[in-house]
Amino acid sequence: MSPKKIDRRKHEIIVSPLLLNRVFQSILERRFTEAERRLEEIETKIREKNYDEFKRGFMQALKGMILMHRSNDRDTFLNNIDLKDTDALKKYYREFSKSAENRLHADYDRGYFLALAKYMSFILKRAKSKGALSGKN
Considering the entire predicted model, what is its pTM? Predict the structure, then answer.
């Protein structure tokens, strides 16, 4: 018995990558009010389409990112990652991406993992463009 293929169109977040990157940028720069405003824009656009469990998980992950960074609690995952360690960032990206595609996870969880994968991808691209990661590749 072969596993069913995932309908990728069902699990796409139809939102501008630029808008999503602005949320991530605002989070990293600790401009949480701006991040929340942009997140509301994203949620409005997503709600215009079919707001399913996958998209709910994606949105909850974004909201959680803001809360974790705002809390500045050093025991939270996102406040503990080394933004200059490309090997670790790539590893997190691969793990989150793999989980986002894994059919054994519920739709909500896959959406949540997709948001985390996109965040790791953003951090990697941002760091590379600034040349901050030249030491650890």
Answer: 0.82
